[in-house]
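Working notes for the structural subgroup meeting. M.R. asked for a predicted model of this chain before we commit to crystallization trials. I am recording the input and output together here so anyone reviewing the notebook later can reproduce the run.

Input as submitted:
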Amino acid sequence: MAERAKGRFIFCTGGCRSGKSAYALSLAEGFAPKVFIATAEGRDAEMRQRILAHKRERGPEWATLEVPVASSLNLPEFVRKAAGLGGVLLLDSLSTWVSGCMEVLSGSRDEAALMDEVLAVFAQVVNILRQAGGRAVLVSAESGLGLTPLTAEGRLFADLLGKVNQVAARHSDEAYFVVSSLPLRLK
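Returned structure, recorded in token form:
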């Protein structure tokens, strides 16, 4: 079991398959009701299997709100609904959410406008969480640990996710970096 976190708004980041989602779940123990906001879509068989494995790991006590990619820019509505229930809200993950936003907005905005719009939507999410009465745990992949992507779209994703992560960390009460299932408390 994780050390008992005291913060209401908690940010967990780490590399892919680092154990950050499992750690985030442990931070939700003892809270009810439990609402999971899922940002991944099962577009292929492998992803559907990953989603099923995550659902099994969470267990039946979690209510799940799925954010389809087409609704990525409506994330504040999902967060408002979940936060209104009290208890604990766990959003997993900001990285797949940013990817969904880029898919929705690709071709319709230049890079600066796209970044501004996604950051404005995320600012709404942060404001809702800061005003909510329950606990919120946000999970995201860390974007700055790998090589610089070769494509412009890959670099935009890394830049945008980095900015979203910075906002989440700055506004959180607690932040953790998870490596090989071991959490390192950042704040």
